[in-house]
């Protein structure tokens, strides 16, 4: 696969540039990338601080994903999505694979086993472009198990052109915001740890500490004791103690039981 732009590539790029901020951009952008990459889903989100993610546009290979997968994502599973949880995105944007940013126990988490794996996606790449408003435009490109993972050459090509793609995403997202073409996003529920704290008290009559609720949320996202400790600025042994106390109070003994108990909160 050559990294040089063909005359047809240039035409596709010019079309995408001309349509930034309009309803035709998504299709032009998809055609631009489809000329170099094969993907089974092509989804464009906007992540706004303190709000539920918006699906701005989507293309999904016919009969490939469960019909309710996007609805379930927006209704609550986004809280466990590593792309949504990613903080400190560079100003120039970030192109990365899910496997490169996922928590250390993500692929054995119940979120992955019960929700993500059901999609039959074997690899996902995300382009995250910060917008002037503080929001993030997120483009997700996924491959199904039947297609197989991206080849190294394809990923290299994507990374090579990442700066141009980020400029396009930023221009599109910014012009949409300036033109006020997007609906006002729905307000998001409180942070996951606060939801866990409140709901466990109200539905189970149990009182968790804030730290135990934070540990519960991180465990659901796929973090190990060590990874959770780093995020919270505590020792691994302290993290273990909080997790042990959490499980004791909830009368459970595994991450799977925790997911089953708290899934209705997502």
Description:
The chain is α+β, with helices and mostly antiparallel strands and 266 residues long. It folds into 2 domains: 7-178, Beta-Lactamase (2-Layer Sandwich), CATH 3.30.450; 192-265, Orthogonal Bundle (Arc Repressor Mutant, subunit A). 48% of the residues lie in helices and 14% in strands. The protein contains 13 helices and 5 strands. Strands 2-1-5-4-3 form a 5-stranded antiparallel β-sheet. Strand 4 (121-130) and strand 5 (136-144) form a beta hairpin. The radius of gyration is 20 Å and the shape is elongated. The model has no long low-confidence stretch (mean pLDDT 92).
Low-pLDDT sequence parts: none
Query: Please, what is the CATH homologous superfamily of the largest domain?
Result: Transcription factor LuxR-like, autoinducer-binding domain
Level-2 CATH architecture of the largest domain: 2-Layer Sandwich
* Rg, Å, rounded: 20 Å
Number of domains: 2
Strand order of the largest sheet: 2-1-5-4-3
InterPro entries: Sig_transdc_resp-reg_C-effctor, Tscrpt_reg_LuxR_C, WH-like_DNA-bd_sf
Protein name: LuxR C-terminal-related transcriptional regulator
Keywords: DNA-binding, Transcription, Transcription regulation
Organism: Roseovarius phycicola
């Amino acid at each position: 696969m050559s990294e040089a732009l063909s005359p047809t590539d240039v035409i596709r790029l010019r079309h995408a540039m001309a349509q930034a901020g309009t309803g035709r951009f998504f299709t032009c952008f998809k055609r631009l990338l489809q000329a170099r990459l094969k993907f089974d889903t092509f989804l464009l989100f906007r992540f706004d601080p303190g709000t539920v993610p918006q699906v701005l546009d989507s293309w999904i290979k016919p009969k490939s994903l469960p019909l309710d997968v996007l609805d379930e994502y927006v209704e609550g599973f986004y809280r466990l999505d590593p792309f949504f949880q990613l903080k400190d995105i560079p100003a120039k944007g970030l192109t990365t694979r899910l496997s490169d940013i996922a928590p250390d126990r993500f692929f054995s988490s119940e979120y992955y086993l019960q929700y993500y794996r059901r999609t039959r996606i074997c690899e996902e790449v995300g382009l995250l472009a910060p917008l002037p408003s503080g929001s993030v435009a997120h483009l997700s490109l996924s491959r199904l198990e039947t297609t197989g993972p991206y080849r190294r050459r394809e990923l290299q090509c994507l990374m090579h052109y990442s700066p141009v793609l980020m400029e396009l995403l930023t221009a599109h997202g910014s012009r949409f915001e300036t033109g006020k073409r997007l609906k006002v996003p729905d307000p998001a529920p409180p942070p996951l740890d606060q939801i866990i704290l409140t709901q466990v008290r109200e539905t189970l009559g149990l009182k968790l500490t804030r730290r135990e609720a934070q540990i519960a949320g991180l465990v659901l996202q796929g973090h190990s004791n060590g990874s959770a400790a780093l995020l919270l600025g505590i020792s691994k042994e302290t993290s273990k103690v909080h997790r042990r106390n959490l499980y004791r109070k909830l009368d459970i003994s595994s991450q799977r039981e925790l997911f089953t108990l708290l899934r209705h909160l997502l």
